[in-house]
Amino acid sequence: MELFLTSDATSVILNSNGPSFLHAQVHLVIPRGTPPPSSRLDNIRVSLLCKESLGFPAGCIESSQWQSSIQVKNVDRTVLRSGGTYTWEVQIEVPTDMPAYERCRSGFCFQTLRAEATFPGFRLFRKSLEAEKSVFLIAPPESEDSFCYDHSQCGVGEGLGPVLIQAQTQHLTVAGYLHAAAQIPAASPDCTLDGVEFTLIQHTKLKSRKRPNRVVECARRRVPLFKAEEKDCEAMQWTFRLPNDQQMRPSTIHQHSAIQISHTMEARFYYTVDEEDDTRSEATATSSSSSHSSKIQRKKRAFLLTWPITIASCAFRWASIHLPAYSPLDSSPVPVQSRDVWHGKNVHLSHEQCVCGQSMKEVMRVEEEMAQAHAMERGCGKMGVGSMDSISFDGTVFAGKDFRSEKC
Fold first, then answer.
1. Structure pTM?
2. What is the average pLDDT across 158-170?
3. What single-letter DSSP state applies at residue 375?
4. How many other C-beta atoms lie within 10 A of the C-beta of residue 344?
């Protein structure tokens, strides 16, 4: 005999405006020729378990658990026979204080769906069957516009002049894409741009549940995104992909999570500029000023622009949000693998059920569909996603040299 679980979806999107429910099915398969211990079941109990573990930098570990259980109704009315397959539908309410799924170097929060079928009999002689299935509680973005991202950042660099950078995407998730364009319209004539580098900084904070006032900040993690060499800086427009969920985690949105993750985007411009060398020896310092002439040297400089960014989970595929796929059984089952270990590989071994498993072509096609949908809702026409033509700059902000058309 075998007891196993399936669910309508492996990832459960939490409802931010009300209670959330998990729909699952309990299946009992009795092979032909194998008589059941009893013609009826005593009960079936299904539980949603959540285990959280925090590893603080000081070395202490803090664990917490949540549980929500229900008992399947009218189980004792079902007559069991050899060779039969039986299915019961269940609906479990997710506790409002249960945190969403998370894992990082500083801790984890996993959810498991467990079913136990018990046959009648004395307590010590009762036969029971158990089944488990991993599920993922995903916190939704704050709004639908969280996927559509358009941000401009300005700054002024010494010798580089005003710098304007714009980042845009229609699918801002883990393993999504980001379009970036820059303008440097008023650089000094002797300035040469050597390269541009984009880096994502991941910040992690742990909030103790035992001591509510204790908040510990963990070490930052730098994730390189894209580096443009000098030859790639002529167009000043780039498209690059964000890392998958093995390299970065989504920004924390769920208020009950003790693992708080936030992100900062860095754009670093490397350039070379002429500067006067005012260092003189004592002999030169005592000489007359008329005989002194400052030397001009080429010096390398770096200019940094940073801004906060909120990145949604890779579980938010456009296909699953726009038109969920339905099937009699779980179309994307979780691999059977214990996650009660501190270190280990991601259970998404194939990455087939999230954005991480999609190719560049698939994600770019998704961006086009999302752009059309948002354009229809807003009544503003189709956006040119997939090309950088949709990224425009306010020409009244800067005036002067533009690295996109002329090189210093």
1. 0.79
2. 93
3. H
4. 12
